[in-house]
Amino acid sequence: DAKTTQPNSMESNEEEPVHLPCNHSTISGTDYIHWYRQLPSQGPEYVIHGLTSNVNNRMASLAIAEDRKSSTLILHRATLRDAAVYYCILRIYNQGGKLIFGQGTELSVKP
Amino acid sequence: EPEVTQTPSHQVTQMGQEVILRCVPISNHLYFYWYRQILGQKVEFLVSFYNNEISEKSEIFDDQFSVERPDGSNFTLKIRSTKLEDSAMYFCASSDPLGAVETEAFFGQGTRLTVV
């Protein structure tokens, strides 16, 4: 299974931007980069995904390195409700779309 | 917004009993998944299901587990003879027909299974 590497934890202040890094040096050309988050006591929730180009949606932005070996999830203004575990996952083309979750990055947001 | 619904939210069962966890995926989705999360651990993939058959399963998904889509709306996970170590939160997910990889997966809120 394709592997991603993320810091175990990060801290942010409320209303400030947060940059969550992810390394995926073994990514192949057809693998999509997906980000999910899991709030306490809830199911995983989709955040954003991309293939090669940077992506924006209402929740976040995804910056993908030119060589695709790393990416960064950007929360533009962190709120207390963004405190969660964030997972960077490679979705493999010929593996039926399964998501292999790592340990993720636990983001805490201070008021 | 469409959502994946799971029932029950919490199930307590005796060791050795059979349990069926139920999920109603989003209506036009064609890819279905079960995951589990043991308390304090990471989310683990169990099985993916497409076109009325299992497309992939993990080592966890042994002969004690089975999945079924008995009608056009429900997707079930059956554990034939539960063990204490099956106690976990079980999540159902679905993805739309445009593609399993190119689109997001929607997760339900989970069923907490407690085996006593």
Textual characterization of the structure:
- The complex is a heterodimer of chains A (111) and B (116).
- Chain A is an all-beta fold.
- Chain A is 0% helix and 45% strand.
- Chain A has strands at residues 9-13, 18-23, 32-38, 45-50, 55-56, 61-64, 70-75, 84-91, 105-110.
- Chain A has a five-stranded mixed β-sheet with strand order 1-9-8-3-4, with no helix packed on it.
- The radius of gyration of chain A is 13 Å and the shape is globular.
- Chain B is built from no helices and eleven strands.
- In chain B, strands 2, 4, 5, 6, 9, 10 and 11 form a seven-stranded mixed β-sheet that branches. Chain B has a four-stranded antiparallel β-sheet with strand order 1-3-8-7, with no helix packed on it.
- In chain B, strand 5 (44-50) and strand 6 (53-57) form a beta hairpin.
- The interface between A and B is medium-sized, with 27 and 25 residues.
Radius of gyration of chain A: 13 Å
Low-pLDDT residue intervals, each spanning 5 or more residues of chain A: none
Residue share in helix of chain A: under 10%
Q: What's the total number of strands of chain A?
A: 9
Strand content of chain A: over 45%
Average pLDDT, all residues of chain B: 93
User: Widest sheet of chain A: strand order?
Assistant: 1-9-8-3-4
Structural class of chain A: mainly beta
Count the DSSP helices of chain B.
0
Specify the helix fraction band of chain B.
under 10%
Shape of chain B: globular
